[in-house]
Amino acid sequence: MDLADRIETFRETLDEWLRGLYHGMITHPSYEKIEKEAEDAEDAFILACFPDAFGIPSPVSYYTAELLPYLEDEFESWERRLWDRGTYLERKGQQYHF
Amino acid sequence: MEPFVFFGGKGGVGKTTVSCAYALRCARDGERTLVVSTDPAHSVTDVFDQQFDDSPQPVGGVDGLDAMEIDPEDEVTRHLDEIRQDLSEQVSASMVNEINRQLEMAHGTPGAYESALFDRFVDVMRNSDPYDRVVFDTSPTGSTLRLLGLPDLLEGWIDRLMHKRRTSIDLFEKAAVGNNEPRRVMEGDPVLARLQGRKEFFEFAGSALHDDAAFFLVLNPDELSLNETERAIANLQEKDLAVRGLVANKLTPSPDPDEDGRGARYLRERVETETERLETIRSEFEPPLVAEIGWRSSEVKGDLLADVADELDIETTAEPPTHV
User: Of B221, B161, B175, nearest to B13 (Cα)?
Assistant: First the structure.
């Protein structure tokens, strides 16, 4: 293996490491953060649509019920997230990796 | 005058009689007329001695007059069935039960009847092409007033919902960095499309009620009815819907002057207090008194209905609706 090849291999490894580091430190956390935020916003939307699930009668749930057939995924993950969530703080805390 | 005419008032004052009489008058004046009862205690059937359901049917013996009765319970069931149909097409079997529970809950809420009724009558206004005039015989004041207040309230609500949905989709799109597929996309989102459709529906309802509808309140010459009418006028004005006129129904007939029995004295006293009350209405209430209808000794139907129709001083020529 001559020098040129060794430099090439080294560069490749370095490139992979840097890419991994960038993904791990920058891209993924920010992706996660935005997605969590999006989920929170979606939770708020579904809660606004179906407050009667918590015993709060809503004048619009008759109309928002029409959305239910199109909210299958959202509804399922909404329920799951609500079961998982201990406190709101905990959910927010999950977004930071110390 | 506006193509849609609403008659409202306290329970038992004779809204159905007055609206049927008015519809009859419109039909006789050559306007193709539909009378719609939104009162679950259906009495249009009794007035015309004919069975009606929730699709317009011609009234026997009167040219150009159709009638229909809306049953909120049927409407709620129909709405529920429609969604269930969608549900079975869209949703996997395991989720159907879960969602069904939510669905039934939504249709058991206190507002469901009102929403169903509202949906239906807006639908009637939207598809009023074959008619020049649609007369609505509404349920007693309270619930009707809430019904008419719905569009504004709901439009705002839907707006906020759409905003929330957009925010979350936007974030999902942003979360998809690089070549990731976003979990939700704004383009062609069925939920937003549905909400938009609803919004347009409420907008139509709001503008139709505002520009194409005239409101009349029926009242009896007694204290309770007067008070309720006063509140109803204020309420409607608050919603920017003006009451065009008041119809005084069930007025006591005065006895002949030479009679002086117990019955005659009773009637004379009643007529006196009623005259006072009518005077109050004329001087203190803003909308004009457009009809004074005497108390009939028998049920108002057939020829009697025609008599009542003659006593109504309400214009019958209908203008075409501005929003369709």
Answer: B221
Residues of chain B with Cβ-Cβ distance to A30 below 8 Å are: 177
The crossing angle, in degrees rounded to 10, of helices B15-28 and B302-311 is 80
pLDDT at A7 over 90: yes
User: Beta B243-251 vs B4-9: how paired, if at all?
Assistant: unpaired
Using left for φ > 0, alpha for ψ between -120 and 50, and beta otherwise, residue B137 falls in beta
**Section B295-318 average pLDDT:** 74
Count of A–B CB contacts within 8 Å? 125
| A51's tokens | 């407050």
Q: What is the pLDDT of residue A89?
A: 66
Cβ(B25)–Cβ(B17) below 8 Å: no
CA dist B112 and B72 (Å) reads 9
3-state secondary structure of A35: helix
Residues of B in contact with A67 (CB under 8 A): 191, 194-195
What gap in Å lies between CA B95 and CA A70, rounded to an integer? 12
Interhelix angle B93-108/A72-84, nearest 10 degrees: 80
Check: CB of residue B54 under 8 Å from CB of residue B68: yes
First-residue to last-residue Cα distance in chain B = 17
Over range A26-30, report the average pLDDT: 80
Considering only the C-alpha atoms of chain A, give the largest distance between any 2 of them, rounded to a whole number of Å: 77
Please state the ipTM of this predicted complex: 0.74
Identity (one letter) of the amino acid at B58?
P
Phi and psi at residue A39, to the nearest 5°: -65, -40
134-163 of B, contacting A, C-beta below 8 A: 150, 153-154, 157-158, 160-161
- Helix (H), strand (E) at residue B113: helix B112-126
Nearest CA in chain B to A45: B164
Residue B251 φ/ψ, nearest 5 degrees: -80, 145
For B26-70, the pLDDT digits (tens) are: 888 888 999 998 776 667 888 888 888 888 899 888 888 999 988
Asked if residue B15 lies in contact with residue B9, where contact means CB atoms within 8 angstroms, the answer is: yes
A89 to chain B, any CB pair closer than 8 A? The answer is no
